Structures are given as structure tokens and as C-alpha cells.
Amino acid sequence: MPKRALLEHRPWLLAAITAATIYFFVRGWPLGELWLILLKGAGVGFLAIYAWQRHASADGRLLALVMGLSALGDMLLELDFIWGGGAFFASHLAAMTLYLRNGREKAASSQKALAVALLLGTPLISWLLAGDAGVALYALALGGMAACAWMSRFPRYRVGLGAVLFVVSDLLIFARMGPLSSSAVPGLLVWPCYFAGQLLIATGVIKTLRRTV
Fold first, then answer.
1. Would the pLDDT of 3 be above 50?
2. What is the CA radius of gyration of the chain?
């Protein structure tokens, strides 16, 4: 990457990774609820700024909206589970719009099968884990987002994998509401899976958009 691009754009990725890492380690500290909420939202919030500045196209702006709504969801979840879920639901709808605008011309049968599995399996597993119809409805949008990401022209081993990691993160949250309620596993894996997924999505989409200008 040229020196100018490094100075102008990498700092937002570094800021995102730094904020997300700090949040993971200090989230249990008595820092004050407001500071923790802002720190939690900063990780993906900086990815939104990265997307906005990195590509000035409609798709770049749409990606920034996806990340911005997710950052809002991260913060709202600390106040109300339904509000946070609503913000993420909107984020998934925006992400599906982005991916459908950038559909892949040809896809193998196995790739289509995995997309269908993500679309249908995500809400089914979510309902089995949480036993809640509202969770299943949200998970339908989550699965739709992942399926559309997998069928888009964006690289599957970055954007597709990122979307799958997002699904895994939310499934762990739902498992914490049920069979893993007394397990430490969700607490250790939810945030790393979620942020890694968002980072892969943001960088994968931007890389593709810049390459096709």
C-alpha cells in the first residue's frame, strides 16, 4: 500500500482493532456503563468511517451504513436487547441490499446449497437454542444476510467467511439463553467471532470495490 494510502486509511482499521481489543479485555472492569457502551460501539464504528472514506460509491456508502447500524446495535444491546436487535435487523437488511446489488454471475450447486442452508438453518437453529419466535424472526434476517453474502461477487473466504462468523457469534448468544447458559464459552467467543467477521466483511467489500473501479 502506498505511503499516502497507509496514512489516510489504515489508521481507521487500526483504531477499530484497537478499540475492539481493548473492549474485550476491559468489559468487566468498573469503568462506568457509558464509557463501556461507547468503547463497544467504537470498534465497528471505526469500520464504518473506514468504509465511508475508502470508497465514495453507492456501494461504499451502503457498506458504511451496514457498519454504522451494527455499531449502533452494539451500543443499544447494552441498554435493551430488543432495541439492539432492531438495529442489527436493519443492518442485515442493508447488507442484503448491498450483496444483492453485487450478485455473483455463476455459482456452483454446492455454493447454492450452502446459501440455502444458511438462510433456513440459521433461524431454525436459533429457535431450537433460544425457544423464542422473536429470536427466530431476527435470525431469518441474519441467515438471509449470510446467504446473500455467500452468493455475492465479493470473496467468499473474506466476506462470506465474515458473514458466517457473524452467524456463529449470534448463535452463541442464543445458546447462552439456553443450553450454554452456565458455560463460559459464549463469553469468550462471541465478541472475537463477531468483530473478526465484521472486519473481514468491511475489508473484503472495499478491496473488491476498489479493484473494479
1. no
2. 17
What predicted TM-score, i.e. pTM, was given to this entire model? 0.91
Q: Count how many residues are written for the chain.
A: 213
pLDDT of res. 4: 55
| CA angle, 14 then 65 then 136, to 5° | 105
Return the closest-CA partner of residue 68 out of 48, 39, 83. 48
pLDDT of residue 46: 97
As given in the structure block, the three cell numbers for residue 101 are 446489488
Angstrom distances, CA of residue 47 to CA of 6, 14, 184, 188: 15, 10, 28, 22
Nearest alpha carbon to residue 64 among 78, 49, 74: 49
HSE toward the beta carbon, residue 52, CA cutoff 13 A: 12
Taking only the tens place, the pLDDT of each residue in 57-111 is 999 999 999 999 999 999 999 999 999 999 999 999 999 999 999 988 887 888 8
As a whole number of Å, the end-to-end CA separation of the chain is 17
Q: Which residue type does 58 have?
A: A
Strand partners, 103: 152
